[in-house]
């Protein structure tokens, strides 16, 4: 059991433990250490790497070991959401190609739980067993072999991968897609998903969350079902309601008394009458007693 000092700043921390057995036949010290992530208390916003434009301070390259390859941050023909996406051409050869998103400085990943992106494989018949991978914090995932993308589906695919799949938390220096094949492909809405935390501890006996928070729905955009998580700090009557942009009520997802803590619900893109609603932007609003907050989500049919 470890008590976190109340003035400890969020981020990646190194914990070291020294064990000195006093009753052993031969006295010796054992030193152990590991890295932990201390999260801020409350709601953490998504870090959008690309959506319409690159995030401030981030760069993008498409290259092999020896040559730069073209890409377009203003693709308008094939778009997942909004008005623009990233289009890029790949190449086969002696060296893999990489499409690398890179922040200006190594990024502290604490506070983020997943990476998500929209992927379109294009219309070339490029897949014949070649690898198509995502590389982060020293770990590589084969996106096709592990079932995250399907090259045979010639449409946008929403991909969401927990950061735990990339091993222990470590500073993030790049988000790199790679492979060894000829194709024209597209990416959109690349982001690190923020988490909802209620980790503030006043003393060892404190067990109640101190935060009122509404997380960004995931996936977002979505086309069939999206998950909404929220935190209420005390037992109260809670309402989670969906509105269209005209302010009309679409449906109530929650309308009941709930205990303090973290809760989760889903929306299947239907209204109160059970009818499917149209593509577009919707508002979801959380109310608990006098507290209120809202966010936007996007439905793409």
Q: Provide the structure class.
A: mainly beta
Percentage of residues in helical conformation: under 10%
Count of discrete domains: 2
Rg estimate, integer Å: 23 Å
What is the number of E strands? 22
Q: Based on CA inertia axes, which overall geometry fits? A: globular
Mean pLDDT metric = 82
Determine and state the CATH class of the largest domain: Mainly Beta
* Poorly predicted residue ranges: 198-209
N/C terminus separation: 48 Å
Question: Any idea what the CATH superfamily of the largest domain is called?
Answer: Galactose-binding domain-like
- Beta percentage is over 45%
**Helical segment count:** 0
Under the CATH scheme, the architecture of the largest domain is: Sandwich
CATH topology of the largest domain, anyone? Jelly Rolls
- How many strands, what sense, and barrel or not for the largest sheet? 6 strands, antiparallel
Following the backbone from N to C, one meets helices and strands in this order, namely EEEEEEEEEEEEEEEEEEEEEE
Explain this structure.
There is one protein chain. This protein folds into two domains: 47-194, Galactose-binding domain-like (Jelly Rolls, Sandwich); 207-299, Sandwich (Immunoglobulin-like), CATH 2.60.40.1930. Helices cover 0% and strands 47% of the residues. It has no helices and 22 strands. It is globular, with a radius of gyration of 23 Å. The protein starts with 10 loop residues before the first strand and ends with a strand.
């Amino acid at each position: 059991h470890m008590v976190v000092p109340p003035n400890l700043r969020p981020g990646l921390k190194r914990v070291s433990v020294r064990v000195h057995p006093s009753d052993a036949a031969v006295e010796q010290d054992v030193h152990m250490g590991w890295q932990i992530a201390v999260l801020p208390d409350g709601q953490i916003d998504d870090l959008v790497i690309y959506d319409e434009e690159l995030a401030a301070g981030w760069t993008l390259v498409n290259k092999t070991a020896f040559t730069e390859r073209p890409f377009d941050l203003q693709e308008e023909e094939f778009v997942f959401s909004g008005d623009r996406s990233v289009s890029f051409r790949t190449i086969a050869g002696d060296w893999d190609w990489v499409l690398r998103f890179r922040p200006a400085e190594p990024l502290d990943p604490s506070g983020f739980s997943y990476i998500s992106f929209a992927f379109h494989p294009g219309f070339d018949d490029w897949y014949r067993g070649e690898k198509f991978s995502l590389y982060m914090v020293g770990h590589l995932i084969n996106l096709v072999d592990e079932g995250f993308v399907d090259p045979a589906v010639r449409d946008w695919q929403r991909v969401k991968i927990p950061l735990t799949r990339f091993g222990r938390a470590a500073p993030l220096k790049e988000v790199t897609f790679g492979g060894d094949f000829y194709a024209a492909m597209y990416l959109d809405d690349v982001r690190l998903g923020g988490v909802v935390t209620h980790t503030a501890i006043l003393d060892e006996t404190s067990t109640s969350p101190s935060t009122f928070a509404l997380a960004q729905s995931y996936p977002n955009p979505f086309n069939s079902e999206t998950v909404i998580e929220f935190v209420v700090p005390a037992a109260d009557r809670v309402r989670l309601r969906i509105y269209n942009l005209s302010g009309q009520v679409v449906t109530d997802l929650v309308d009941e008394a709930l205990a303090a803590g973290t809760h989760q619900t889903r929306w299947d893109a239907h209204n109160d009458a059970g009818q499917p609603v149209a593509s577009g932007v919707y508002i979801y609003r959380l109310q608990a007693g006098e507290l209120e907050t809202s966010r936007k989500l996007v439905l793409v049919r």
